[in-house]
Structure formats: structure tokens, C-alpha cells
Amino acid sequence: MLNSLSGRFLILTVVFVMLAEVLIFVPSVARFREDYLLARLERAQIASLALLADEMLSEELERELLDNAGVYNVVLRRDTMRQLVLSSPIPGEVDKSFDLREAGPLDLMRDAMLRLWDTQPGIIRVIGAPSLDAGQLIEVTMDTAGLRVAMLDYGLRVLFLSAVISIVTACLLFMAVRRLIVRPMKGVIGHMKRYAEAPEDARRIITPQATVRELREAETALQAMETQLTQALRQKERLAQLGGAVARVSHDLRNILTSAQLFTDRIEMSEDPAVKRMAPKLVNSITRAVSLCENTLAFGRAEEPAPVLSLFNLSELASEVLEAERLAIGEEDISLSEDIPASLVIRGDPEQLYRALANLVRNARQAIVATGDAGEISVAAWAEDDAWIIEVTDTGPGLPPKAREHLFQPFQGGVRKGGSGLGLAIVSELIRGHGGMLALKRTDETGTCFEIRLPMGEMS
């Protein structure tokens, strides 16, 4: 119990309440001492008034008045005259004198603590102002033994009452904390355990119900986290299913493309100039498709294989991409252009970079076609001090806000109706595999520009 939040709160409550009572104890005892001494002065004044009324009091009656007042003698100052009104033998010398007329709070608390600390009884002189202005001052001599006993009795009663108050307060706070804080926290913990058993089940996502603001904020944050986690797990499951489907399709497609490769030999033997010009491009396309199918079957997962780096001419690769895209354009009014130095040689995986550029150009073409207007797509590249820069720019309508928010996330960054949103995610992963970065440089109503940055240094 002591290791629990409510148990520790109970202990801290008792400690702090007792500390507060201790701070109250000192001025309380000082006040009690002052009242005790003032009471002795008032009794002594009453006794002296009885003597003044009848100056022929017997010694026995005078002694009885002093015993009732609890003092040894009484001195009054009236009309500038100091008069010993009542007196009896003093058992010792006077140790200290206290003038209650001039004592401040700190003096009273100091004297009270010294009195409690001093266990030896003594004789003290107490000076005060008479009640109802019956003179300039009244002075008594008294023993401190009774004063200390009364102060100890009062202090113990104060401490006992403080302990009772602290225990009752701590119990009430303990029950309030358990009901308002501990019980809701245990409910959240229990919910987290139930959610952990089946995080894919959206019905187990917490619904904020706490009335305490901080707990409700915690439940709201937990709800957002669980929602994101459930969506991520569902997306992971869809990706796994997609990977299995792609692997099966790739297996059959590879067989079909392998058969198609057998026909390319006969096509290359044709004497038709157009066929001779198109045959190498057809062979390269089929080879790339077969390679992609083999990679999918070899890895069987969403991750791309590590790039096989080599030096190649980027201009020739970009020309192949644009030439293949021209065949897909058909009669659409879309122009393709490139601005790449003919001698620009970069280091990378030609097959993966071909796929990256093909995806970017294809996305740009589809965006322009969707508008029904004419457009232009350009590929530019140049070398900087530490990186190669490739830009793919189009004059399409620009990306909508939703697509920008989930730009490189599979199944969420799609722009076209019916699109999967995989194109940019694939390009981003391929470029990251090269140690580079894909970034959206610009998008507005005048078009979109994507930038690929490939480092020149060695990649791990």
C-alpha cells in the first residue's frame, strides 16, 4: 500500500498537516503562557483590592488571598506611589523579570520555549497593566513550576488534537484521491492492457470519460496514439497482403515475360526499319519487367533490395524514360523535354533510378491528363559540389493539401481517383536506398517540381 500513489499521498498528508500544526504549536503555547500570567495578575489585583477595602485583614486571610492568586506578593503603583499590598515569604531569589506591557510576539514565543526547555522551577517577577486602568502597573512574584506544568498539559492537548485532525484529514483526502484520481488511472491502465491484447480491434480504442482535466487530456492523447497504432497495424496488414498478391502475380507475369523474350529474337531479325528501331527498346522494357518480377519474388516483402551501384550516363537513362512515356501519351497534347548535360555521369543503380524517374514522369503526365489541358514535363539535372540534383517539373494543377500532408505514405498520398498512392512512396524509398532524398520543391496552380538529391560520397 505504501508503494501506491494513494498510500504515499496519505503519508504526505499526515506529515504536512503535522508540520502545519507544529508551526501553530509555538505561537499557541506562547499565547497560553501570556494568558496564564495575565490571569495571575488579574487575581492578584482582585486580592489587592480586597485589602485596600479593608486594611485590617488578618494574616491568614491575606495568605489565603495570595494562595488563590497563585503569587507570593503583589505590588501596585497608584498615583506615582509604589505600594506592597500583599506579601508572603519568598522561598528564593527572583531569577527573571517579565514585563508583559512591552513584550512582542517574538519575545513571547522565545520566553515560552525557554520555559518549556527549563525543567528547574524558579521564581519570576511579572509586571503588567492593571485591569480597568486601576493604577500605573501591577507587579507579582510567583513560582514557575505550576506555569510549566500547565504549559505542558496545554501543549500535549494541542498535539493530540493536531494528530486527530491530521489523521481524519488524511483519510478523507485518501478516499477522495482514490475516487477521483486512482480509480480513473486504474481504469486507464486496465484499458491499456485490454487494448494490448488486440490492438487491431478498433472497438478497444479508449473513449475519454474522465472529468478531471489532466486525466481527460491523458485519455485524449492515448486515444490519438491508439487510433494511429491501429491504423498503422491495419496498413501493415494490407501491405503484407499486397506483398503476397504481388509475389503471386509476379510469378505468373515473369513466366509470361520470359516467353515474350523468346519472340524478341525474331523481331530483331526483321528488315523493317521501324521494327529495328523499336526492337531494342522493347527488349530493354521486357528485361526490366522480368528483373522487377524476380526481385519481388526474391525478397517477398515491401522493402526494396539494396542498390547495385555503378557509373552510368544520366542523359541516356532519362531519354529512355521519356521515350517510353511518349508511347503512353498517344494523342494527348503533352510535351516532354530534358535539360541534362550529355556528359553527366552519376553513380547509382540504373534500374532503380529508371523506376524512380518513370514514376515521377508518369505521375506528372496523369496529373496533366486529368485537367484536359495541354502541358509540359521536363527533366533537368546538374552536379553540385557534393551531390547530383535531378528535377522533374510539370505544368499540372499542383498537389491538393491532403496529398501534401501524406505525400510519401503508401495508400494515403494518392492524387488521382482510384490511385493507390504507392508511386511517390516507392520513389522515396528507392532514393533513400541511395543515401539521397526526395523532396517536393514547389507546387501551386502553375505546376509541381520534385527534386532528387543523390550524394557523391561513399554510401554505407
TrEMBL record:
GO MF annotations for this entry?
ATP binding; phosphorelay sensor kinase activity
User: What are the Histidine kinase domain coordinates in residue numbering?
Assistant: 248-458
Query: Domain of life here?
Result: Bacteria
Keyword ATP-binding: yes or no?
A: yes
Give its E.C. classification number. Answer: 2.7.13.3
Keywords assigned by UniProt, alphabetized = ATP-binding, Coiled coil, Kinase, Membrane, Nucleotide-binding, Phosphoprotein, Transferase, Transmembrane, Transmembrane helix, Two-component regulatory system
Question: Where do the TM regions start and end?
Answer: 9-30, 154-177
Coiled coil (UniProt feature) = 215-242
What's its catalytic activity? Answer: ATP + protein L-histidine = ADP + protein N-phospho-L-histidine
InterPro entries, per the entry: HATPase_C_sf (IPR036890), HATPase_dom (IPR003594), His_kinase_dom (IPR005467), HisK_dim/P_dom (IPR003661), HisK_dim/P_sf (IPR036097), Sig_transdc_His_kin-like_C (IPR004358)
Q: What class of enzyme is it?
A: transferase
Specify the protein name. histidine kinase
User: Source species, please?
Assistant: Sagittula marina
At the highest ranks, the source species' classification is:
Bacteria, Pseudomonadati, Pseudomonadota, Alphaproteobacteria, Rhodobacterales
